[in-house]
Amino acid sequence: MSGAKTMDMATRITDIKQNPAALLALSWYYATNVKGEKDMVILPYKDSRH
What separation in angstroms does the CA of 4 have from each of 8, 23, 43? Predict the structure, then answer.
């Protein structure tokens, strides 16, 4: 839960250069020819060995 809290706080930052989710979305937008030609899905994952 601490990781989720950290990311929740990080993605609420309004400065795009400091917001990892906004940077990823913007990067993906440009990587797909500024047309949204492809979708990206991000799934949470936790290694069951830990």
Answer: 6, 18, 13
